[in-house]
Write the structure tokens for this entry.
Amino acid sequence: MNAITKNLDFSGGENSWFDFWHTHIDWNGDGNKNWILREKFLEKLLTEFENVKSELKKFPNEYQTWILIDENDSGEDGIYIHTKNPNSENFPLKIKRENNIKCENQNLSDFMNKTGLKIFGFEHEDGNYYYLTDENYGLSLTE
């Protein structure tokens, strides 16, 4: 268990739930300065996603997990876990897939395509966001 997952409860007990829990790797948005920095943060994001998925293997309840990448802001890139929770009836999250979302940042597009993860994007007022999921983990995000 690593620093990101060590304080999370994957037991499936009464207090073991995730309401859009997430974390970021590049909290300060330093990856926005240049591609070399952003790529390092994205590599770390993938490593931590693998750690999260490893811990979720022990989780006995249904869940969703994904990476969210903001095309324009490295500081917003994050890992998410979502489950049934007492805060609201918002599980499972279902997102309508938008077609023809093109990543304008070729470096980012190439990076995402090399991950082997399922990718789908959606337009947001601040730019495009991309969901990256592993179809072998958790419930699907798409309708």
